[in-house]
Each structure stands twice: as structure tokens, then as C-alpha cells.
Amino acid sequence: MLSLFLHNGGAASKGQLRCVAARLLSTTATTNAPTTTTPGSEHFDIIIGGGGLVGTTLAAALAKNDTLADKRVLLLEGAGEFKGFDASSPYQNRVSAINRNSIELFKSIGAWSHIETTRFKPVKQMQVWESNSDALIQFQHDNFASDVACIIENDLILDAVYARVREAANVQILNKARIECVRLPKDTSGSHSELQLQDGRSFSCELLIGADGANSIVRKEMGVDVFSMNYDRMGLVATLELGDDVCDNSVAWQRFLPNGPVALLPLNEKLSSLVWSTTVSQAKHLKDLPPAEFVDALNEAFCRQYARVELADKAVQALNSFFGQQATQNQLQYPPRVCAVKDGSRATFPLGFLHASSYVCSGAALVGDAAHRVHPLAGQGVNLGFSDVRHLVESLAAGAYAGFKLGDKQHLIKYERKCLAKNVPIMLGVHGLHALYSTEFSPVVLLRSLGVQLTQNLPPIKNLFMKGAMG
């Protein structure tokens, strides 16, 4: 077993050696008793490995559920203690486009009122358009009766959710708690899931939930197959100041450029958040540009005429004529002019795709980025994680009410099935969009332009897409 922790002839760390010792102790003990824990470890019903938006929301949802309110929950947060959110501080560069289902989840755990009374921006309309043709699509409800999404700063979501977690008598938060190793039960014989932290402390539980991100230690111990792909792209985020001519900043704008999509998300009447997906070299270049040059490059990205595919333009015009619609050029709106970028708000992050072949095993389950990771072009990443939270809590509550153990795989499978039915189509769709818009090959431009314009002209299909995006 020690060979698992030796790399290229190097010695195992003290933490890794402690893990080996803990595993040997638990293996020996397992031969003598049907239900075991490592000597000296503290036991919880549920341990959530990883905080962040999804893990912390899961802790709050477990505490709020009447059936699960008596279960002892431990939330392991790798970062230090969360300092809270200051509503008087400048807007942050990490935001999320939250859909209706996620908002309903926040309402159910009592977190939405905190967000609603602090600050958020409803999106009434979204416009997506092509740079190599005239194709475009606009999403909005009839007469703008309800919002397409809401733009909320990530730390504000955390602040609202942490407030609920700290009120819960059955939830304990452990900060700066990084998992060193995990041992999961090999079957349903009754043994517990166990883990050891980097500081040497050990815990056991009925159910270990991996909310520890794309490099999940819990997922690795589960041994499930993972399909992952590095897009060789980076996302650039920033907080932007808009020109004085803006009268109603309630539209989300996204344009597909040759190197990837660039999006403006409204924060308030004078500020927007940027998410620009592009090549690694261009992302680094844009991040380091002087502010004035960066603003010029961004405004040009939304307005510049790129190389056109004439056949695609003609096909879009013919499609509009067939449906009796006005020319796309007359439908197209342009986003507000950006006049400045907030100091220190530019940051980059890598983009990729990941999906675990299974979300559960005996004694463990995965949520959020530990189970799946998608391109941000559709704003679905964190919403899929919140959907996981809702399905997992519902499944655990139903199982507990029926007398199942929390870590029973036969019941956890029901959670997995619900998630796969929702997540896989969305993830394949987002991945497909990324692939379609990563080329300027004329036949592909023609096909994607026809697809976009056909969707724009057929309300039932457009509404289907919109309902999917809204959860």
C-alpha cells in the first residue's frame, strides 16, 4: 500500500504515511467487527468535503430539511473563515448568472431574502450573435414579464448561505481543512467512510459528499472513470464601467468571436461584468494591456466586422424572408459602450470539460465540479451544481424516511439518475456549442448560422431552449 504514495523513488510525506497507517488500522479492525471507525476519529452522519458555493449551499439545504435536521453534518472548507460580504464595497469580478431553479433553492433554505435586499441585477433579455455571419438570437419572455436570469456576485451568495449554515445547530464548519486521504467502504457491510486531513485529524461518516472541485480527492478514491478535456482556452473576467448614454442596463450580451465568445453581464445601471473566452495567449495579453487599450479592444470585439461567410449570410436572409421576418441587421442591437475597467478586476482561469461516469458509490456521492465541469458560455456551471444539491437532499430525505442508510448505494443511485437525466443533455449541448464556434470552416459557419436563425424564427423551439437554460 505504501507504494501508492511513492513517486519516482521519493519518500512519502508524513501525512501520507499517517493515511497508510489509518488504512491498515481500519483494515485490521474490519476483520473483527461489522461496523468500524478508525480509533480516535470523530463520527458524523454526513461530511461535505469542500465548501464553496455548492458545498456550503448543500450544508444549508441539509440543515433546512425536516427529515434530515437531526443528522450531524460536518462542512470541511479548505479556505480560511469567510469574512462576509460588504455591500458598500466595489462590485467583484466573480459573478454567476443564476437561473429560476437556483433561486427557488435559495428561497427554500431562507437565503434569497438576504440576496434580494442586498444587491443583484435581473436580466430581462439576452442577445447572442455571430461574428462570421448575420445570425442572431434574442431571448426574453413575452412583454418581459419575468427575468431570464439574475446576476449575483459569488461572495454575496456565500454570505447569504453561510448565514443559514451558522444558524443550524446540527452543522459544524471546519476551516482550513484540506483532505489528505479517504477510505470508502468496499461494500454495504456497514463500515463507514473515513478521511484524514492534512493536519492529522481524522473523521468518519455514513456519507461522504465530494464537493471538492474538478480535482476531487473523493472522486479519485471512488475510482470512477472520468472524461475530461482541456480546451486550451482561458476565461478572462473583469468589472467594467459603462458610458453615460446607458438608460437601461438589463440585457446580457454575447458575441461568438473566432477565438471564443465574449459576454457582458449587467451588474447595475452603470456597471457590467465581463466573461471573455479566448486563446491562452490572447487572454494573457488582454489581462496585461493598459486599461485604455483593453477597453478599446473590448469595444472593438463587439462591433468589429470579421471575415464573413457570404453563403451563410444569404442563407440567413432567405430564412428570415421565408418566415416573414425583417432583416437580421435591423433586429441587431449593440451593447453599451464600455468606458473603463475597474483597477485590479481582471483575472483569468482555464476552461475545460469534465464528467464523472458515476456520481455515487457506497458511502460517497459527488456534487458540483467534482462531478461535472462545463464551458461558461451558457452560464450553466454553478446552476448544475445547485441542481445537484436539490436532487441529493430530496433523495437523502426520501431514503432516510424509508429507513435506508445515508450511504446506501442502492438509494443513492436514484440521485445519480435524476442528475444524469438533467446534466448530460445540457453538458453535451454546451460542449457542442463550443466545438461549433471554435472554427471558421465555411460549411460549419453555414450550419450553425442556420441553426441559430431557425431557432430565432421558431418560438416553440426558442422557448424550449430558454426553459432549459432557466432550469
Describe this structure in words.
Its EC number is 1.14.15.45, 1.14.15.46. This protein is an alpha+beta fold. It has 14 helices and 20 strands. The chain has helices spanning 14-30, 52-64, 100-108, 112-118, 154-167, 217-222, 280-288, 291-303, 310-322, 328-331, 381-402, 409-436, 442-457, 459-469; strands at 42-49, 73-77, 95-98, 121-123, 125-130, 136-139, 149-153, 171-175, 179-183, 193-197, 202-210, 226-242, 251-257, 260-266, 271-279, 338-341, 347-356, 360-361, 364-366, 372-373. The strands form three sheets. Strands 5, 6, 12, 13, 14, 15, 16, 17 and 20 form a nine-stranded mixed β-sheet that branches. Strands 1, 2, 8, 9, 10, 11, 18 and 19 form an eight-stranded mixed β-sheet that branches. The two termini are 45 Å apart. Mean pLDDT is 89; it is low at 1-12 and 24-35.
Continuous helix count? 14
CATH topological fold name: FAD/NAD(P)-binding domain
* Approximate strand percentage: 25-35%
Number of domains: 1
Low-confidence stretches: 1-12, 24-35
Question: Mean of residue pLDDT?
Answer: 89
What overall geometry do the principal axes of the alpha carbons give? globular
Main beta-sheet strand count, sense and barrel state: 9 strands, mixed
Topology, number of strands: 20
Structural class of the secondary structure composition? alpha+beta
Rg value: 24 Å
Assign a percent range to the helix content.
25-40%
Distance between the termini: 45 Å
The CATH C-level class name? Alpha Beta
Query: Any idea what the CATH superfamily is called?
Result: FAD/NAD(P)-binding domain
Q: What CATH architecture would you give?
A: 3-Layer(bba) Sandwich
Subcellular location: Mitochondrion inner membrane
Protein name: Ubiquinone biosynthesis monooxygenase COQ6, mitochondrial
Keywords: FAD, Flavoprotein, Membrane, Mitochondrion, Mitochondrion inner membrane, Monooxygenase, Oxidoreductase, Transit peptide, Ubiquinone, Ubiquinone biosynthesis
InterPro entries: FAD-bd (IPR002938), FAD/NAD-bd_sf (IPR036188), Ubi_Hdrlase_CS (IPR018168), UbiH/COQ6 (IPR010971), UbiH/COQ6_monooxygenase (IPR051205), UbQ_mOase_COQ6 (IPR000689)
